[in-house]
Amino acid sequence: MPDFLTDFHHTTTFGASAGGGIDRQAGTPEHGAVRAWFRRRAEELGMTISVDAIGNQFASIEWIPGAPHVFTGSHLDSQPVAGRFDGTYGVVASLHAAASVAEDVASGRLVPTQNLTVVDWFNEEGCRFEPSLMGSSVFTGARSLEDILAVADNSGVTVAQALEETGCRGTDAIPPVASYVELHIEQGRRLERAEVQIGAVTGNWCTRKVRVTVIGEQSHTGATLMSDRRDALAAASEIVLCVERLVGHYPEDAMVTSVGRFTVGPDVPGVVPGRVELSLDLRSREAPKVIEAWALLRSQIEAVGRRRGVTVEIEDFDLRDAVPFPESGVELTEKAAAGAGVSCMRLETMAGHDAISMNRVVPTALMFVPSVGGVSHCEREFTADADLATGLEVLTRVVGRLVEGAPNWVDPAAEAGTSCSGSWSE
Ligand SMILES: [Zn+2]
C-alpha cells in the first residue's frame, strides 16, 4: 500500500501544469480523473463509496451500525494553473488518517463510538462555476440543489452536465454526520513568520463578493471625439483602483480587497469598450468594517458612473459571515499538536473553506500547516514534505479522538456569528 507522501505526490499527475502546479477546475476531465483515483484508493482501503446529487464523494467506514459519522476531508478541484497542495492535501491526508484510525480500531487500541467518512467536496474553488464552496453549501442546505445544478460556465456547460460527464452525479444516501474536521495549507505566512508548525483556526473572516457590470457605449477608437465617449473600460479601471485603495481607510492587515475577474467587451483593438464585468471581494475579521467599507465603495462606484456617463449594475453574489469555530475543537487541535510534540498557534482563516460551510451545521475544526512564502492559487504554492507529514499526524490524532467520542462540542449555533450582509437591499 503506497504511503501518504507517495499518494499525495501521485495526485499531482492529474492535470499537471508545466510549471509544477495543477490545472484541475471543477468538473473537467482532469478533475474527474483524480476523483476516480480517490474512489479506487478508498475502496482499496476497504471504504464504501457514496456520491450525492451535487457530486460530493464520501468514503465511509462503519464500525457501529447506525451511529453518526465523523467527517474529514477537503476538495480535489483547483483554480486555473494553481498549486498542487490546496485542497488535495486535506483529502489525501484524510484517507491516510482514516486508514490509521481503522488500524487502531482493528487492533483494539481505539474503541469507536462513531463511524468515519472521508469527503471530497465538489467545486470548492468556484472559478469555472460560481460561487465557491458549492458542494458543501448544497450539502448543508445553504444553497439549493436545483439552482446550483443549473449554474453554467462561460461556454454554457452546466454543473449538472459536468457532473454527468465526469461520472460524479450520484443518487446515494449519505451517512449522518456528527462532526467535521479539515486539514489545509494556510495559504498565508503567519505560521511561517512565527515558525509554528500547526495552526488551530478559531474563526473565519467576513467576506462579501460583488459582481459589477459597467455599461458604456461601444464606439470607434479613432473617429469618436473624446468628449463623446462613454468608455466602460476606463470607468471600470477607476473602480478597480477604488477597490484597492479602500484598505487605506483601515489599520494595516484589518482588511483585504481585490478585483479577481475582469471581462472586457468587445475586447478588440479598434473599439472603445462598451461593457465590462468584474467581480470584487472585501474581507475583514469584523463584519461592521465590511458593511461600512462596502457602503463607501458603493458610493464611489456610483460616483464614477455618474461622472463618466456609464451605467453601473451591482449584484451581491456571495456573503460569508464571520463565525467562530467551537472552542472545544480548537483545543482538540492544540492537544493533538502537543501530543505529536509540535508547536501550534491560534489564527483565523481569511480564505474560504468547506469547513466554514460545515461549521454552520455541525461542530467543526479546521487546522493549517505552513505555506512557504504564504503564496497560493499559483504554481509556486509549496509546503515541505515534513510539514505535510506533521499535519497528517495531528489530523490522525484529532480524527481518532472524535471517533472515540470526544470532545464535548459547543453547539455552533450557540455561538452567534456576525453578519456582513448589513442593510443591503437591492
Ligand atoms: Zn482549498
Key attributes of the depicted protein:
Alpha-Beta Plaits; 2 domains; alpha/beta; about 425 residues; Aminopeptidase; eight-stranded mixed sheet; disordered C terminus; single chain; 12 helices
Write structural notes for this entry:
The structure is a single chain. The chain has 426 residues and is of the alpha/beta class. It folds into 2 domains: 4-204 and 322-414, 3-Layer(aba) Sandwich (Aminopeptidase); 206-320, Alpha-Beta Plaits (2-Layer Sandwich), CATH 3.30.70.360. It contains 12 helices and 14 strands. It has helices at 4-11, 29-44, 88-107, 134-139, 145-149, 159-165, 190-194, 232-245, 287-308, 327-340, 354-358, 385-404; strands spanning 48-51, 57-61, 69-75, 115-121, 177-185, 198-204, 206-215, 219-220, 255-265, 271-272, 275-284, 311-320, 344-349, 364-369. The protein has an 8-stranded mixed beta sheet. Strand 3 (69-75), helix 3 (88-107) and strand 4 form a beta-alpha-beta unit. The longest helix is centred in the C-terminal third of the chain and has 22 residues, at 287-308. The radius of gyration is 23 Å and the shape is globular. Residues 412-416 and 420-426 have low confidence and may be disordered. Bound molecules: zinc ion. Zinc ion is lined by residues 75, 86-87, 124, 184. Zinc ion binds at residues 75, 86-87, 124, 184.
What's the SSE blueprint?
Elements: H1 4-11, H2 29-44, E1 48-51, E2 57-61, E3 69-75, H3 88-107, E4 115-121, H4 134-139, H5 145-149, H6 159-165, E5 177-185, H7 190-194, E6 198-204, E7 206-215, E8 219-220, H8 232-245, E9 255-265, E10 271-272, E11 275-284, H9 287-308, E12 311-320, H10 327-340, E13 344-349, H11 354-358, E14 364-369, H12 385-404
Parallel strand pairs: 3-4, 3-5, 5-14, 6-13
Antiparallel strand pairs: 1-2, 2-4, 6-14, 7-11, 7-12, 8-10, 9-11
The structure holds zinc ion.
